[in-house]
Design a protein that fits this description.
Length: 405
């Protein structure tokens, strides 16, 4: 992959940052930068055929409706869903998880039930399940982590029993980079007829998702971590499950007929998309997936993996810098600590050199507690990062370590 050529497609990198140096963006786990094709797709919609979808008979409405449907088909192909009906647009990962918790789980959850999550979850895939349990009296069971940051699969298998209604697990830890064994997780849950939701927020840019092969019940992700816009995400659900739950939101666009007495709901997927959708977001997400498909997920994965491997070697040689979590399999996310320096000081120091990393708890308080830290410095790679940028990061870490020594 020609990284320079790819990087040129992202206008943000053509801007000098306030300090006058090049932006070295190593916070891709928080959100990815946007290529010109995605920005253009959104601008073209607003400037060229802005209209609501599904209802108008005039030409911009027809064009918008076609683009909207095409984007849904693109999503379907991208995750290999059986049908477009299984792909519901939401405002993001968090929204999708809340919708599953509120509409699928909670209505039937009792104090005899339980829900399994992991100790490494982002709050977005933790708090909704925790609150569901608190409001129903169900038990929240948490799969612990091994010291290297891997899930303790034996502990998971022991937590599974007939009371479990949902296993909600991230594919990749947004803080440690741990890649979870989804096949093992789903297979074990199947033996107890338990639903499984996969938080694919970090997985989407890393490898090809095949929901049929995974055999998960729900899978969720956000557009903005996939070079797409904010405010748009996807809830994949098996057709019979999405059929079986009440509409995720009531309103216009999700009905066949309304009388004073009753409402007949639309078929999937519209049934779950009450109100005007984030049309520009959907079109932008479609463009982002086409962009990713063109580059090839394998090429993206290989590139970010080689940067990660390179960084791990370099960090391993660095006195005073500790890598947090050395999982067996990881994605391109690394948490680290610089001895005696607060993560925010590290991030501020690097920022003056144009290097953008993330410092803090990464919305994973239970994980931070497990690690015994307040926060970490997190480095996460994208397709536009280069080995030279890793070298600059390492130089910056040496400087900050020595400055505070
Ligand atoms: N889960 C994981 C693993 C994440 O990394 C994130 C975003 N950091 C979320 C959930 C929440 O995503 P969003 O804020 O886009 O809803």
């Amino acid at each position: 992959m020609n990284v320079e050529a790819v990087k040129k497609q992202f206008p943000i990198f053509n801007k000098a940052n306030p300090a006058g140096n090049e932006l070295i963006y190593l916070d891709n786990a928080a959100t990815t930068q946007k290529p010109q094709v995605v920005i253009d797709a959104i601008a073209d919609y607003y400037a060229g055929y802005n209209s609501n979808v599904g209802r108008g008979s005039y030409w911009p409405a027809t064009a918008a409706t076609i683009a909207f449907k095409e984007a849904r088909n693109t999503v379907q192909d991208f995750i290999n869903a059986r049908t477009h009906k299984e792909c519901i647009f939401t405002s993001g990962t968090t929204d999708a998880i809340n919708k599953v918790a509120n509409n699928y789980l909670i209505p039937n959850l009792t104090s005899a039930d339980s829900v399994i999550v992991t100790e490494m979850e982002h709050h977005g895939n933790f708090v909704p399940w925790q609150q569901a349990c608190l409001s129903s009296g169900a038990k929240l069971k948490v799969i612990p982590l091994r010291d290297n940051g891997d899930l303790d699969y034996e502990a998971y298998e022991q937590l599974l029993d007939d009371s479990v209604r949902m296993v909600a697990v991230t594919a990749i830890s947004n803080a440690l980079g741990t890649k979870n064994d989804l096949k093992r997780i789903v297979e074990a849950a199947r033996a107890f007829n338990t639903a499984v939701l996969i938080d694919a927020a970090q997985l989407v840019t890393h490898e090809k998702i095949d929901v049929q092969q995974l055999d998960c019940d729900f899978l969720v992700f956000s557009g903005h971590k996939l070079f797409g816009p904010t405010g748009i995400g996807v809830l994949y659900g098996k057709e019979d499950l999405l059929e079986g739950i009440p509409p995720l939101s009531y309103g216009g666009g999700m009905v066949k007929q309304v009388t004073v007495e009753e409402t007949i709901f639309a078929d999937l997927p519209e049934k779950h998309e009450g109100g005007t959708s984030n049309i520009a977001g959907v079109i932008g997400l479609g463009a982002a997936i086409c962009f990713v498909n063109k580059l090839g997920l394998t090429a993206i994965h290989e590139h970010t993996k080689s940067l990660t491997d390179y960084t791990l070697v370099k960090l391993g040689d660095l006195d005073g810098v500790r890598i947090l979590g050395l999982p067996d399999e990881r994605a391109s996310v690394i948490s680290l600590a610089v001895e005696k320096v607060h993560p925010h000081d590290v991030a501020s120091f690097l920022s003056e050199r144009g290097i953008a990393i993330r410092a803090g708890h990464h919305c994973t308080h239970p994980l931070m507690k497990r690690l015994g830290v307040q926060g970490t410095c997190r480095v996460s790679f994208g397709i536009y990062n280069k080995p030279e940028e890793v070298d600059m990061l390492i130089e910056g870490l040496i400087e900050v370590r020595d400055f505070f020594a």
